[in-house]
Amino acid sequence: MHLEQLECIIEVAKTGSLTNAARNLHITLSAVSQSISNLEAELGLSLFKRSRQGTVPTAEGEAIIKKAYEIISKVQELRDEANDFSNTQSGELRLATIPGPLSLYLDILIQFKRAYPQIEMEISEKGTQEIIDDIRYNKVDLGLIILFEHLLEKNLHLSFGRLLKGKIVVCVSRKSPLALQRTISPYDLLDQSFVFFNDDYMKWYMDQFQETYGKANILFTTNNQDAIFRALHEENIVTIGLDFSFSKFPQIESEELVMIELDIPRPEPVYLGWVRAEEKRFSKAESIFIQKLSYELQKK
User: Fold this and answer.
1) For the residues 217-228, what does the mean pLDDT come to?
2) How far is Cα 38 from Cα 170, in angstroms, rounded to an integer?
3) For residue 282, what are the CA distances in angstroms to 34, 92, 241?
4) Which of 112, 144, 188, 290 could bond to 97 as cystine, CB 3.0-4.6 Å?
5) Mean pLDDT for the chain?
6) CA 271, CA 106: separation in Å to the nearest integer?
C-alpha cells in the first residue's frame, strides 16, 4: 500500500470521476485506474461502483476512504511539524479571490510575501462559484469570498471562516444630488440605473432587492472597476455593493465618489471570509496567511 493510492481514492471520491481525479493529481487516467485496482486487490474488496451520478464509493469503500483521509492528514501534520523545525517558513499557497475587495487586502498580500519569501503564492481573481468549484477540484487551496446564509446552506461540505463584517452601501458621484444624503431608501433607487460587480452575492442580493422593492434598471455588471467608476459620472447611475469593497478605492479616498448607507430593515449579516476544503488539514502556509489577514483587517 502506498500514499499515492490513498490520494487517488480520496480524489476519486471527491470528484466522482476517475478522469477528474487524474487531472487534479496530474497523472494519467490509466495510472489512477491501475492504482485503485491494485489497492482493491490488496484489500480484497471493491472500493467504487459506477452509477448515473458518476463513480461513487461502495459501503466498504466509504469506510476505507475515511481512514485514508485520516492517514493523509497525519502525513501532512508530520510534514508541517518537520517544517516548523526549519528557520524559515516554506510551502505553497494557491489563493483565489473575488475582484471587489481585492484592493482592501492588496497591501496585506504584498507584506505577507515580503515576510515569507519562501512561501510560493499563486493568486487569481474569480467569481464565487468558480472559486468554490476550484476548491472542490483541488485547483486552489483557499478562497476569499462573500459569506452569506444562502451560500452557506448550499455548500455544507466546505469549511468557512469570517474575516470582516460588511454592510450594503450605495456609491455615487459627488456631483449626484444623492451625494448629500447620509442614508437612502431602496425605493429612492428605483429611478436610478445600476452598475455593479459581477459577483454571485451581488446577483443574489439584487434578485432579493427586486422581489421586495420592485424592478431595478440594471445597466450592466462587470468586474472592471474603471468601467464602473466611469459610468458613475453619468447622470442617474449608481453602484451598490459592500462597504469594504469600495473603502480603499482612490476615488473614495479623494471623495470623488461618495458612499451612502442603504436604509433597509433587519439587513442579513454578511462577511468577507475564507473557504477551503473541509477534509483537508490547514497547511502551515494557510494558517500563517489567515492569521495575518485577519489581524490586519481588524485594524482597518
Assistant:
1) 91
2) 59
3) 30, 12, 31
4) 144
5) 87
6) 18
Mean pLDDT, range 103-117, rounded to an integer: 86
Whole-structure pTM value? 0.69
Which pLDDT belongs to residue 213?
95
Distance of CA 125 to the CA centre of its chain: 10
User: How large is the average pLDDT for residues 204-222?
Assistant: 94
Architecture of domain 168-266: 3-Layer(aba) Sandwich (3.40)
One of 1.25.40.10, 3.20.20.10, 1.10.3720.10, 1.10.10.10 is the CATH number of 3-84, namely 1.10.10.10
Across residues 233-259, what is the average pLDDT?
Answer: 89
CATH architecture of 92-163+279-299: 3-Layer(aba) Sandwich (3.40)
Which pLDDT score, from 0 to 100, does residue 87 have? 45
